[in-house]
Structure formats: C-alpha cells, structure tokens
Write a structure and sequence with these properties.
Rossmann fold; 2 domains; six-stranded mixed beta sheet; five-stranded parallel beta sheet
C-alpha cells in the first residue's frame, strides 16, 4: 500500500521509516519547510518555559539557555527528548496542548509568567487557556513553517497515475496547503480515490468539507494515527 506523507521533510522522513517497518510504501511530499525566525527572547522574570514542538527547542537559539534553571514544560515525547539533548530537564510532559493545560493550571494556582517558545502558525489553545487562568504568557515565535510551492515530482506522478492509496495529514495548515497545491497541479480529482487519515477533527475539517473520505486518529498522536492505518488494512 502506497502512503503519501505530507509533512516537513525531516518529520516526513521519520514517518517514512515507521511506514516501511510496517510494510507500507511511503511517498514523501513535504508541504512545509521549517525555518528559524531568529526572534529575540525579551528579558523578563519568567516562572517557567513552555514548548509544544521539538522545533521550538531546536530553533530557540543559544539565548534560551539563560533560562535553563526554570521549570521546562513540553508537549510531546519528542519535544522532551529534544530538550534533554540540549541540557533541559523537562518537568511536565503531555501528549497535546489540551492535555498539558489542566496540568499547568494545577501546578501554578497563582498568576505566573510563562515564556512560550512557539511556531508562528499554531493553534492558540495553550496561551488562551493560561490567559483565562490569570497567567501571563510571552509568546516568542522562534520558528515558522513556510508553504511549499509545489508537490514533489514523485507525488504528482503517483497521484496522476492513481498510485496513491492513502494520505496522512498532520495539521490543518498542511492540509490546506496540500489542497491548494493539488488543485494547482490539476490533481484535485485524484484525491477522491484516496483514503485520508487525519490526526484530529480540526485537521480533518478541510478534507471533510470537500466530501473526502477521512479517518481520524483516536487521539492527536502519530502512533495512534498509524495504529488506525494499520487496523484499516488488517
């Protein structure tokens, strides 16, 4: 079974390794390019640091190290590993922003000041929830995800020949970019013959709006997504 992987290149290659081990044939077409913004971190008396993606750690720059004595809270096991590799000691680790928010609110009952090392395009659930809880959040966009200009040659050829069975979708923005690129390449019609697997309801929404066949992961986690994929062909 041929699976179209629509992620930033490094993430797509990691996913491809997992798919190969599962017996699938990955077709990689990065729709996003991750780049550090070089944004400066405003000096302040922060109480803790938040990161919701490994890229937030990797793109933070050396100036973030001045805060390495602060509690460090992260979303995702990979983010935790990236933090540990750079000398951070992750405290609270949760699988999603929705999961970490109640843990943070319980840990910090008094108004606190968080430094959030984030990506420019993101869901605002974490900072919004903390703000409603009376906390101050300084968001520094340390990386951005730039939209690709075209689908990969391999993806275009496979879609045009009807040789894609499944497409994996990880973010709403990547879905929206993918749909635009497929339309620009004259391949929108090919998407109806594909089984689409999405990380969450929010990710699935643009696909479902077009009447496409979408299966959602039970939780917004790649392992859950791949489990659902494996179950669909067993």
């Amino acid at each position: 079974m041929r699976v179209l992987v629509l992620r930033a290149r490094e993430d797509a290659l990691r996913t491809s390794e997992k798919l190969l081990a599962m017996g699938f044939t990955p077709i990689v077409s990065p729709v996003l390019e991750i780049a550090a913004t070089g944004a400066a971190i405003p000096p302040a008396d922060y109480d803790a640091i938040l990161v919701s993606s490994a890229k937030g750690v990797e793109c933070a720059g050396s100036e973030a190290q001045r805060y390495n004595s602060l509690p460090f809270h992260v979303v995702g096991a990979r983010t935790a590993r990236a933090a540990e590799a750079r000398g951070w000691r992750p405290d609270i680790v949760a699988g999603a922003a929705e999961a970490i928010l109640p843990l943070l609110l319980a840990r910090y009952p008094q108004p606190s000041h968080f430094l959030y090392l984030a990506g420019r395009d993101r869901q605002a659930a974490l900072e919004t929830g903390l703000g409603r809880g009376g906390h101050d959040v300084t968001v520094v966009n340390v990386y951005e995800a730039r939209a690709a200009q075209t689908l990969s040659d391999e993806a275009c050829a496979a879609l045009g020949a009807g040789k894609v069975d499944v497409a994996l979708h990880y973010s709403r923005r990547s879905v929206e970019i993918f749909l635009k690129l497929a339309d620009a390449a004259g391949l929108s019609g090919a998407l109806r013959a594909i089984a689409h697997f999405a990380l969450s309801a929010d990710v699935a929404a643009p696909l479902e709006a077009l009447g496409l066949d979408v299966t959602r992961a039970e939780k917004p986690d790649e392992d859950r997504l791949l489990t659902v994929l494996a179950r669909s062909v067993s």
